[in-house]
Amino acid sequence: MRKKCGFTLIELLVVIAIIAILAAILFPVFAKAREKARQNTCLNNIKQLTLGLLMYVSDYDSRLPYRYYQIVGAASCDGKFFWPRVTDTYVGTGLGTSASGKELWRCPSHKWGTPTNWYCGAYADYAMNGSVEGRCESEIRFPAATVLLGEYAYYHPTHERWYGWYSWAGWAPYQVSPPVHGCRYDHNGQQNIGFVDGHARSGSEGYWRSAEASGAVRRTP
Q1: Which of 45, 62, 134, 209 counts the highest number of beta carbons within 10 A?
Q2: All structural domains of the chain with their residue ranges
């Protein structure tokens, strides 16, 4: 009589165990690779927005825009100007929830999604360094070391959107509940920063704090 060929229960369990071990090893690797791709997209966003701000500077007497200002007496968006609104003229994306280029203003790792409205073009996943707003280029002594933009914002839980017009002001992580201003380190523990000279790079909280302590990175001109 011929013996039937097939897996025994023990052999099947061994195969399942091997697959589980491989999955446990590979899935985190794949997750990190996907996040690295999102980080690169975010870094490119900051790079483009940084260059957009510098194009604004070249058109307005070598002076950076303010994060936010409002014409006295104005009660509508016509009298409110946020840095994303003035920068959009140069990056050409169009602001709004249905704008074709809205992704430039959103970090792909940002879990909250697109806001339901754009409130005068103010909502963005990035924030401008308040220490350099309104300053002339000549006032910024170390443009290659001075922060211009960062992944920093304030989340409003009621409105379910980020307020991008708040000032980027430091390295501490954000908090959602209760809402606390802070940086986002969503890219495998790193955040992206754009500098006044136009370049952008990534780093962890420890890296940025160390770089600031050594003078390689500056928050103030």
Answers
A1: 45
A2: 11-214
